[in-house]
Amino acid sequence: MAPAMTDAKLFTCSQSTELANSIASYYGIPLGNVITSTYSDGEFQPSFEESIRGARVFIIGSTHPSSDHLMEMLLMLDAAKRASARHITAVMPYFGWARQDRKDKPRVPIAAKLIAKMLETAGATRIITMDLHADQIQGFFERPVDHLFASTVFLPHLKALNLDNLTIASPDMGGSKRAYAYSKALESDVVICYKQRAKANVISHMELIGDVTGKNVVLVDDMVDTAGTLTKAADVMMERGALSVRAICTHPVLSGSAYERIENSKLEELIVTDSIPLTQKCDKIKVVSCAELFADVMKSVHENTSISSKFLM
């Protein structure tokens, strides 16, 4: 006889409190009570302040830098496991360290694989995430992974802009699949940027494959870090006759001088989700929330109902 379904319990890591509050609001239940004690040397200890025995627990937290964010998720997973939670789902809107998904030169780690194993060892029985840097990261897990697409929230926003002569662009060859998926949904043309890097985060050369003359271009990518690629691509496209250039990036990592680059760039606007909280204000950055998407999927997971309708791409 199957056990009776208990109510789900939602908890948040400190770095994702604002998003988690929005998710809980859409879900229809308050966030659970967690307190974190911090030692003078920076070591910290999260503690569930309510019983979670036999419950389905969702722990919400993106793992963007610093590494303390990942550590907090791991500690909360371990605490939930030791408190006898029945199901423990790590809800990670942004899965950090995902750019290290393979060995691209000798004697380097495959960090994404390592993180997957750490999450499972800590106690995660399921992962919910969005727009992984590389789809194959799902295969690093031995537990179920629900890989959501931000296109679910971006496409309605794009359609509402009613842009004439719309063209979707990928800022690099690796993102061409994502760009083609958006173009199919929007019935638009596609162009691809070909870039060469001198080293990480430094572009030495960029070429454009396709025609953007007289087009309103929307660049699509999974994340924006230093914004060097996006701003360089916008410059190249405007030089080639584009009417306007916008960008859609799921995860606003925005490190270094990214905010300044975006503000001073030829980008009309940068549209992002709230998977990672912004650290500065920028008039060109518009945030579209992914909270309702995650709340719907979490509820479906808890109720054992299909989530296939949430996969637009």
Overall average residue pLDDT = 93
Share of helical residues: 25-40%
What structural class do the secondary elements suggest?
Answer: alpha/beta
Strand order of the largest sheet: 10-9-8-11-12-13-14
Protein name: ribose-phosphate diphosphokinase
InterPro entries: PRib_PP_synth_CS, Pribosyltran_N, PRTase-like, PRTase_dom, Rib-P_diPkinase
EC number: 2.7.6.1
Keywords: ATP-binding, Kinase, Magnesium, Metal-binding, Nucleotide biosynthesis, Nucleotide-binding, Transferase
Describe the structure.
The chain is an alpha/beta fold and 313 residues long. It has 2 domains: 162 residues, 3-Layer(aba) Sandwich (Rossmann fold), CATH 3.40.50.2020; 138 residues, 3-Layer(aba) Sandwich (Rossmann fold), CATH 3.40.50. It is built from 8 helices and 14 strands. Strands 10-9-8-11-12-13-14 form a 7-stranded mixed sheet, with helices on both faces. The chain has a 5-stranded parallel sheet with strand order 1-4-5-6-7, sandwiched between helices. β11, α6 and β12 form a beta-alpha-beta unit. α2 packs parallel to α3. The radius of gyration is 20 Å and the shape is globular.
